Amino acid sequence: MVSLTVEGLSVRLGRHAAVRDVSVTLAPGQLVGIIGPNGAGKSTLIRAMLGLARPQAGRVLIDGQDVARIDRRSIARAIAYLPQGQTLHWPLSVERLVALGRLPHLGPLSRLSDEDEAAVEAAMARADVLHLKGRIATELSGGERARVLLARALAVGARGLIADEPLAALDPGHQIDVMDLLRDEARGGALVVTVLHDLSMAARWCDRLLLMDGGALVADGAPMDVLTEQALAHVYGITACIDPGNGWPLILPTGRVNTRRI
Amino acid sequence: MTPRRPPLLIPILLLLLVAAALGSVMLGAVAISPARIWAVLTGGGDDVARAIIIDLRLPRMLLGLLVGAMLGLSGAALQGYLRNPLAEPSVLGASNAAALGAVCALYFGLSALHPLILPLLAITTALIAIAGLFLLAGPSESPLTLILAGIAVATLAGAGISLSLNLSPNPFAAMEIMSWLMGSLENRSYVHVSVALPCIAIGATLLLADGRTLDALTLGEEGAQALGANLNAARLRMMLGVAIGVGGAVAVSGAIGFVGLIVPHIVRPLTDRSPSAVLWPSLLGGAVLLTLADIGVRLIPSVNELKLGVVTAMLGVPVFLIHLMRERRLW
């Protein structure tokens, strides 16, 4: 079990205050979605959760320990991270790329054990990329590559998973697969946090939503409590058709609110 | 991590290494049969063969293997670290900078003060060049910025070599400039081996230690950190490893270009292509390539022996061309 506590966190990127005084406690077992308009500070918040962005104020605790005091390998073993739109810098084979997820577990000279190999294989199966195994990762389509990178994150076998926009570039079928997968991970006792833009997907799969705007956390709770007409108008500047749909909510943006920024 | 390289690659390279080493002792102005070599090595043999083998060819062979191994390995490590297939010590200017340090030590009489001054000065100038290069190129991952910065460093250091040789009271300046800029293993002795060996051993150890981090860096710097890599420590090891190893190598051989570029490109398709899997094969392949090139310069009939860099440049240019054609989608 891994738990994450954010206490009065503020992060500056250059002069820009990307995250302002955010406090939140995330427990395992729930699928937590972070939503908000572009530039709301979602990615910076999760990078700070992993100790990749230095807080200007406040702190992040993983299992009660300050992230700034935990060494990188321990963080890597505790929480897997799938960055947003990750670019690949070297033409690796898919299998080798997924196997990178085992790095936090390996000693300096040890080789992949059978257990590592099994974890890699299982991760590829879960992200539906087994058939791409022998391909060169840089030659895949955007959606295929996104799933391979998700498999890489799963291969870590961590108790926590933080995924930044895992649905970008995926076709509808695979979007559903990935959301199912994230929810299964959470149900299995993992801490799962994901940044999403599709409000319907967020409402349907997530157990809890954090709504961010201008670096601040403006709403936190069950999806249908967060996704109100007022909140959508205020934060996104949109009007939307919200249909609770008997457990399968549908949120369809219908237009701009005139008073809001473009 | 497990390199699933074809299990045959390392044994084949070792076999080639032995063959190249043997060839390097056998071949030259006078060919010596393996039987005579065996006789000399076991303590017998005639005086002529003994002089040629023990005093001339063995140190030359050892230096060829050592310098080649270091250049091949640092090319592979730099390419992985910078995620840039064109990175290598001479393209990035580190070799020329080290040669400048060696030239200053030799021709301003500093190396006569203490035998360690020559390699130390070469290592220091190489370190300054690499640190300057990383600063100039910044955190950008564009191959272009890095190569441009490398050209700037290499050109400046090359000009420095010419300048210091012309300023020194040296009647053979032109010839010496050639040797330092193109590299040569002519007339080397065990003194040179004893200078190069420790530097190259330290440099190679530092570079071989970072395979994991190089693999993690294929996901970018943040991706590598999220996998637990300590990038500051890795950067320091990379800079020191290249500076010490290449500095020590260049201090005895001059700046030999392209070995670190060619070798990783040849061995990479025979591995799983991950940066870590290329390190050992590049070390062995570099030793083989430079030893073969050195046999080549001895066998090509010419008044003055050809410089090693001439041969490696001829082999290196096609690698650039292939890259160019791939960029232009002609390949």
Give the arrangement of secondary structure elements:
The complex is a heterodimer of chains A (262) and B (331).
Chain A: E1 4-13, E2 16-26, E3 31-35, H1 42-49, E4 57-62, E5 65-66, H2 72-78, E6 79-82, H3 94-99, H4 114-126, H5 142-155, E7 160-164, H6 172-187, E8 191-195, H7 199-205, E9 208-213, E10 216-221, H8 223-226, H9 229-236, E11 238-243, E12 250-256
Parallel strand pairs in A: 3-8, 3-9, 6-7, 7-8
Antiparallel strand pairs in A: 1-2, 1-4, 4-5, 9-10, 11-12
Helix pairs in contact in A: 4-5
Chain B: H1 9-26, H2 34-41, H3 47-82, H4 94-107, H5 117-137, H6 143-167, H7 173-182, H8 190-208, H9 211-216, H10 220-226, H11 231-253, H12 259-267, H13 275-299, H14 308-327
Transmembrane segments (chain B): 61-78, 90-110, 116-137, 144-169, 189-209, 240-266, 278-296, 308-325
GO cellular component, one term (chain B): plasma membrane
Membrane topology (chain B): Multi-pass membrane protein
Describe the structure.
The complex is a heterodimer of chains A (262) and B (331). Chain A has nine helices and twelve strands. Chain A is globular and about 60 Å long. In chain A, the strands form three sheets. In chain A, strands 6-7-8-3-9-10 form a six-stranded mixed β-sheet, with helices on both faces. In chain A, strands 2-1-4-5 form a four-stranded antiparallel β-sheet, covered by helices on one side. Chain A has a two-stranded antiparallel sheet with strand order 11-12. Chain A has a single domain (4-224), classed as 3-Layer(aba) Sandwich (Rossmann fold). Chain A has helices at 42-49, 72-78, 94-99, 114-126, 142-155, 172-187, 199-205, 223-226, 229-236; strands spanning 4-13, 16-26, 31-35, 57-62, 65-66, 79-82, 160-164, 191-195, 208-213, 216-221, 238-243, 250-256. Chain A is α/β, with parallel strands linked by helices. In chain A, strand 9 and strand 10 (216-221) form a beta hairpin. By secondary structure, chain B is mainly α. Chain B has a single domain (61-329), classed as ABC transporter involved in vitamin B12 uptake, BtuC. The model of chain B is unreliable at 1-5 (pLDDT under 50). The radius of gyration of chain B is 20 Å and the shape is globular. Chain B is built from 14 helices and no strands. In chain B, helix 8 runs antiparallel to helix 11. The chains are: A alpha/beta (262), B mainly alpha (331).
